[in-house]
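Section 5.1 Outputs to date
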Amino acid sequence: MADALVVGAGPTGLTMACELRRYGLSCRIVDQAEAPSGIPKAVAVQSRTLEVFDIMGLVEEFVAHGHQVHGINIYSGAQRLAHVALDGMPTRYSYMLTLPQSETERLLATRLSDLGVKVERSVQLTGFAQKQDEISATLRHADGKSETVRARWLMGCDGAHSAVRKVVGLLFEGVRYEESFLLAYVRVESDLPTDEAHAFFTPDGPVAVLPLPRGRHYVILPLFKESAEADRTTVSLDGLKTLLAQRGMAGLRIFEAFWITKFRVHRRIVPSLRVERVFLCGDASHIHSPIGGQGMNLGIQDSFNLAWKLALVTRGIAKPSLLDSYQAERHPIASETLVGTDLATKVVTLRNPLAQSVRNQVAMFLSSLDVVQHRLTQSVAGLVRNYRKSPIVGEYHQGFLGVVTGDATTAEPAGFSEWREFVAAPAAGDRAPDGTVPVRGSHAPVRMLELLRPGRHVLLLFDGRAATPAGYRKLEEIGHGVQDRYRDLIEVHLVVPHATPPAALQWDGSLLLDADGELHQQYGAGSECLYLIRPDGYVGYRSQPADAERLSTYLKTIF
């Protein structure tokens, strides 16, 4: 019996299978198509997804094959209304990577093959039954023969027309947009910068141009209701040129088309991502407008969120209730994305000339505000999404009054400025900041995302900027206690703001030498504190000061 049966071999299903294997679970992955489609489809790989690939050990291959987009321009006629810079985001991947979905699937499938699992193609799920401790699924192969497969879990990663969703009986609630979209994978001759994306607002509808690897581009046009209803046939290259000319874009010279299609857009979501031993991920559970380039990224991150939890529960290490957090964490993000992309679609596809004029003026004004630019770019990049309301995250720090009156029980009590730094730092449920820091005994510095690659939780014990021998003894005691009880589950690192180990320190474990204080600053560690980072790169728990008993109480809710 396999630990998991993954249905669907798109980016979501391939990520799920790769992650399950990375955590040591057995799985099968099936897809009803006889071969990968080879169609570009989704092309935007956002910053947070690149961080996911970094933790998976894949990011260098993706960056090598992709094309970096560092800005977005919005025009009305010859006037540039807005320029949104993607540089300067708090990540190593401060850009959008464009890469045809077919290449994303190829890279993931290659990794999966290296992990010992091949995609089983021309295999269709025809039904399944849930039992108390397993799934019994029926698969039909290309030769017409049926096979019964037993697995502990069933992962529905099979897209918008999901067979898994239909069998389990979940509603796909939502509506269909009046507009359809035309998507063209082409070679373009133009003077537009090739390291930026471009959107043109015209009276007859917008046109978006997105650069891709190998000098190719995506051209995206929303088609309004009457166009979509009047013509459902495939659009030719000449037809595409006619549509562009109608929108005043005849100067966009397209001299080769590799793929042109029209598709209808829906906004739909399931009420639940889980039914007992069945989980839905990606488009099988939520679909939305392509504006913002979020769809594939959400699916990959769904799988990344769920896989480590599934591994801990399957191995009997974590409580089964850990799996409830998948719904609690991912469903709100999917819902927020549906709302955000719906609003963006309505704004972009305005047809009233007065409304278009107001939209253009507002876009010009808002883009001039740094705070708006920063929030917009990080939202699209996936860097500000958080799980603060999750049932499996927690934190402790004193209130303002406790800081003012002091804490006689703490060897290194936080002052007001240190308390304020910690409160403003990433909270429990937030994405953990990356950073580079030397390790004692190693010639090469290490990044935080690299520390997560073994697939375990990471405990950071910060000694702050005014450490004492008593403070060191406390952190050492916490570290040894966690190592003794959770040796194979949690990696412990003590972080000091020095270039060499302090003489008073007796810690013989991993020591991060944060001489320039970068990591301390990113984590608001002006005084003694601790951070527990989950395998998916989010803060699971934090406290100021570091407290062994509170940490132990939190860990008992997970393990």
